[in-house]
């Protein structure tokens, strides 16, 4: 358990339900050694249209019984996603400052949106209470990977090496998958399988069914595993067994999780993109972790990258300081300085009487 986090600490995870946001929060909570309560916010129109500075809708205010942030308030809130940000500030205020608040990723409300914020290096937000790392937090810990490697699933152990984990995302606000993109990715994966690699493929909820069908057809003649959302997800087991990883560029979370393995990462980039994601990929390339995917494996292992323990340790340190400040006795008010005596009034000077002006002298009389 991370230092400074007592075992009875109450923790909320607060998101709008997006899987990627929730996974980041759960990863941090696990690294802190706490069992969180998951709460989800779902602001409706017109509040959701107001963007980054939207208030908490009246129906969701903490004093409403059905509110997702109804009391009792927790000791710690870990949130992610812009829609959750106003709720975080509402909890801080309603708890009288007791709750320590954490937001993962830039909430677009400035650094005062929470007591502590984490952002990836490709975001621009900076400040004294802002921590910056190259990769994002997640649940793929070194201990979890080691446990999977120590007891490989039989279907994975039966695959000849090299084993390649293939992490397929899907269309996002920055990327789209054209027919040409799907054909290119399927063809490159088929080429890799023909070279003798065993592919362990996992798709996501965003993966277009047509792309899954293309990959299935390309890999049919070769030893492979394909998870398409049915049954137990072998995602962690695939990463643990991987000698290399192929991932699509649309998910920073997936690529960050892959970087925790130390296996070389090969990124497939569909149509689209953004400067932020490009900065992220360039950072991993400089670390020696990542190359573009073109149907071959020509990378080398590197020191695994996992920022989650580092982020959790910083939260623990700041939370400990917050708790100490709450427990400290309130400073006694400073005594007021004694009032200085007012100076004695100066004696009034008697006013001189107003004198009538002297009469004009009479004019001289003429001699008669």
Helix content: 25-40%
Major sheet: order of its strands?
2-1-3-4-5-6
Order of helices and strands: EHEEHEEEHHEEHEHEHEHEEHEH
Number of domains: 2
Sheet/helix structural class: alpha/beta
**Number of helical regions:** 10
Task: Indicate the radius of gyration in whole angstroms.
Answer: 34 Å
Beta content = 15-25%
**For the terminal residues, how far apart are their CA atoms?**
133 Å
> What profile does the largest beta sheet have?
6 strands, parallel
User: What is the CATH architecture assignment of the largest domain?
Assistant: 3-Layer(aba) Sandwich
Low-pLDDT parts are 349-368
CATH topology of the largest domain: Rossmann fold
Could you characterize what this model shows?
- The model is unreliable at 349-368 (pLDDT under 50).
- A six-stranded parallel β-sheet has the order 2-1-3-4-5-6, sandwiched between helices. It has a six-stranded parallel β-sheet with strand order 10-9-7-11-12-14, with helices on both faces. Strands 8-13 form a two-stranded antiparallel ribbon.
- It starts with 10 loop residues before the first strand and ends in a 41-residue tail after the last helix.
- The radius of gyration is 34 Å and the shape is elongated.
- It folds into two domains: 11-138 and 310-324, 3-Layer(aba) Sandwich (Rossmann fold), CATH 3.40.50; 142-305, Rossmann fold (3-Layer(aba) Sandwich), CATH 3.40.50.
- The protein is built from ten helices and 14 strands.
- It is of the alpha/beta class and 368 residues long.
- 30% of the residues lie in helices and 16% in strands.
- The chain has helices at 19-32, 85-94, 142-150, 154-157, 179-194, 209-219, 235-241, 252-259, 275-287, 308-327; strands at 11-15, 37-40, 76-80, 100-104, 116-120, 130-133, 163-167, 175-176, 198-202, 224-227, 244-248, 265-268, 271-272, 290-292.
